[in-house]
User: Which sequence fits this backbone?
């Protein structure tokens, strides 16, 4: 995916600022200067500045142009003592917020914190479905029955690495999807996010480079930064997924070398794309050739029809070098926080890391999930669930069409619970998200999905936890706010 | 606590080996040489070698004396690629075990892994009580009722940072103990171990020095090493707890400086001691004076009578610089894995770290615990629980007296569920633990509680999860094995 011109320019200035050639407080080149040196239009120059401002690298002073902001905030430091000053927005947060989230991906942390302080009426950000779409009553009954059959379950020390019954059921369900596994190859975790964190801790150490898709799930970027790891963004398209050519080049030439690859081959978050089975196989072979562990995040796989999505990449793993991570939080029960992983040759290490970080997982939820998942009711439920999501996706598509017309481009995926909207090139998704939040509509702005000042005019909408009426209203509100968030509306500010 | 002579000598040789002056494969000085240069008896010299061998720093070759083993294994590296070779024991584990647990505290990881591969009949290691001592039936009923009253709890996204009801109940219970807190100052975690890990991540970064008690809970040492932090062991006595003089000196002079202090002022694990309220207050003041955060682990506080144990140190925290960590896994329900912390001025940072590492805690257990803990039944239960533990402690004391006579010294604490046995100076607790494990008796050998080759002749016995008959039998087995684990029995090997 080639970046729009303004993003290329923003990228370039980011490099210059990080190199130290432009320092905090320095006056930033004028719009006119950028137009001349880069040979671009005024609107492109302004847009590039806008992106850098969204990103917290520039600050606009009334009638004085742009000034360089603190860049420490975007470097990888986890020490609270590292020098760091807050960028100016958001003004609502206390003065030292930057320090609070130092090394935890400022932009993501800031947005999560802002979202928490406002009342939210329509939640397009949380990527789960509503309780009515999950097998709520069945799980509740299953839990009651587990409590009856295991009266001491709450006061007995939990089994190591997960309950054998859940591990066995998960293994069987994997085998059905063409990925044969033994129960004892599976480790139960606190959600997929813990699995991803453990995978990274097992194979990397501070300062290492990790290849990620661009864009990628913001949780991955935040985990990387919190562990002091450096993301290397590999171009990823909404049609084919990660570019294998670009990845190969990175594995071949990158210095310091790439230590791990994190990838969502099936129903990518946020793009929604799924790689073909042939490409998944090629991905595994590529990582194996360079002896770099592949961390596969497969969390959305069962939210769409299997025939359209293919197998997990792990199905082609012949020597345990793929670390498979998933959870039941999207597909079965977000209230249980059950995740799991098959860490291949790193399993012993991952399990010891998990022990030292959070010990074992309590068993009530595990047995509840296992007893439902071992039955055929689970298969029937999955089909219903997928159909419900498809219905909501359809509804969202119509609302987008109606409210945005051709201003917005979307590729509709064959599963999952989110859409990746491409707004007009001169729109600021961050601005749009902020204004929408003021009206109680919570979305995930594109810049959260990159560690560079990119994705400025993309927006992720999750539609699983909202009603059809909310989809309709929420999208109308977004469309109404869009014109105020386009660059021509803000040109006056600095030109 | 002054170290016995052989440990001082072992410490010294550890420093020499780590300095690189003695390298892997080098012949270690002969017993005779050690006797001459250090001016000690043969038995002391042999014992020092024995400690270094337990620790994996030396390897005995038949008729050839001692050779230096791999020292990388004891340095702090988290990269699996760092050069590292396994020590020779235990022979049962696969060849690359050292690499597996590289940077995860070899000795602790090795013992945990060994323990898992053997059948255990008498578990003196797991520091919890048996289900019959906990309010098992009451909690089970409470859980069933929560499921009835909150039918969608398993399929609803969990609330951030913990359920308000549990946070409020915990805050009220703290206030009763003289530590006023607001519910919103509390963060719910996956056990106390996650709380400790988050506290460290919030205030330290890789390479930092953290002051710990000596001995200290092995989970702290493992967490430190897994995060690439350096423990600095502060002498700690079974009578008074951590030496405030030694701590002050360390805060004053240590280079690189101490970044955090971790302390268990009440019912220390493994010593069982509790600091006086005056000393707790002095500890808080000391850390505050040096502006170093104090991480307080208070997990055993409610296993003993409050009048004997005093308040938490956090009660004297005036500016949010104490990070308080605890859990319900010892005192209420090990099967729930509920922990919590009050992170003071680091709360926002801790919560974002928790979000990036493991998101939120599922709510069924939280509401179950809250509904029991808000009732007076909880107070009545606590008294019963403490009395039960005291009864078991009494039983263990008698068994030790009967089986060991004066060979073993123990200080009996006023709470908790463990005893710290001082074996004869020439005994190897690691050897004893290994032999006992062969017979199905699992204990925690002293060296797990230090990052230096110390505590060789100490043993921790947890008595909460075993019956009186098991206590009796287990201790008899240990006493029978002891003579084979004293240095004179192994002198022949290398002298
Ligand atoms: C791609 C992806 N991976 C991981 C996660 C985290 O999953 P869990 O909630 O199971 O920790 C999410 C959830 O937002 C996700 O979208
Ligand atoms: C002193 C101490 N802190 C923390 C822990 C870990 O607690 P949890 O099981 O709540 O994670 C333990 C348990 O062994 C302990 O003894």
Assistant:
């Amino acid at each position: 995916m080639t970046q729009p011109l303004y993003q290329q320019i923003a990228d370039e200035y980011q490099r210059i600022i990080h190199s130290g050639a432009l320092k905090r407080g320095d006056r930033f080149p004028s719009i006119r200067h950028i137009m001349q040196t880069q040979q671009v239009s005024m609107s492109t120059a302004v847009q590039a500045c806008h992106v850098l401002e969204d990103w917290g690298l520039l600050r606009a002073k009334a009638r004085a142009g742009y000034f360089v902001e603190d860049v420490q905030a975007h470097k990888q430091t986890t020490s609270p003592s590292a020098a760091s000053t807050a960028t100016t927005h958001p003004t609502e947060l206390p003065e030292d917020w930057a320090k609070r989230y130092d090394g935890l991906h400022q932009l993501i942390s800031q947005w999560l914190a802002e979202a928490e302080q406002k009342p939210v009426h329509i939640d397009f950000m949380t990527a789960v479905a509503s309780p009515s779409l999950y097998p709520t009553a069945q799980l509740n009954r299953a839990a009651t029955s587990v409590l009856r059959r295991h009266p001491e379950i709450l006061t007995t020390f939990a089994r190591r690495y997960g309950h054998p019954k859940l591990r066995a059921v998960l293994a069987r369900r994997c085998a059905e999807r063409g990925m044969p596994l033994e129960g004892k190859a599976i480790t139960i975790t606190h959600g997929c996010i813990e699995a991803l964190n453990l995978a990274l801790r097992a194979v990397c150490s501070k300062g290492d480079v990790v290849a990620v898709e661009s864009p990628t799930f913001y949780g991955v970027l935040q985990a990387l930064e919190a562990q002091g790891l450096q993301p290397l963004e590999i171009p990823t398209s909404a049609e084919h997924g990660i570019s294998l050519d670009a990845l190969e080049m990175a594995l071949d030439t990158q210095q310091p070398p790439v230590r791990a690859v994190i990838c969502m081959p099936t129903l990518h978050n946020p793009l929604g794309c799924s790689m073909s089975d042939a490409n998944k196989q090629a991905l595994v072979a590529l990582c194996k050739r360079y002896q770099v562990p592949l961390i596969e995040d497969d969390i959305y796989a069962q939210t769409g029809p299997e025939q359209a999505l293919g197998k997990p990449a792990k199905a082609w793993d012949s020597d345990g070098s793929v670390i498979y991570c998933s959870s039941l939080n999207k597909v079965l029960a977000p209230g249980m926080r059950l995740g799991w992983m098959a860490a291949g040759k790193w399993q012993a290490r991952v399990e010891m890391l998990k022990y030292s970080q959070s010990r074992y997982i309590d068993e009530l939820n595990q047995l509840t999930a296992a007893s439902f998942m071992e039955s055929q009711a689970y298969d029937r439920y999955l089909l219903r669930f997928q159909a419900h999501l498809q219905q909501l996706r359809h509804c969202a598509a119509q609302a987008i069409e109606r409210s945005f017309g051709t201003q917005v481009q979307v590729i509709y995926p064959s599963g999952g619970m989110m859409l990746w909207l491409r707004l007009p090139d001169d729109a600021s998704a961050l601005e749009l998200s902020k204004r929408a939040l003021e009206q109680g509509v919570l979305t995930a702005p594109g810049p959260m999905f990159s560690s560079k000042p990119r994705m400025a005019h993309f927006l992720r909408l999750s539609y699983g936890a909202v009603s059809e009426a909310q989809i309709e209203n929420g999208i109308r509100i977004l469309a109404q706010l869009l014109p105020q968030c386009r660059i021509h509306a803000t040109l006056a500010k600095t030109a």
User: Anything to note?
Assistant: The pocket of pyridoxal-5'-phosphate (ligand 1) is lined by residues A 127, 191-193, 217, 219, 264, 269, 297, 299, 327, 329, 339; B 359 (CB under 6 Å). The first helix of chain B runs from residue 5 to 19. The first strand of chain B starts at residue 58 and ends at 61. Residues 72-95 of chain B have pLDDT under 50 and may be disordered.
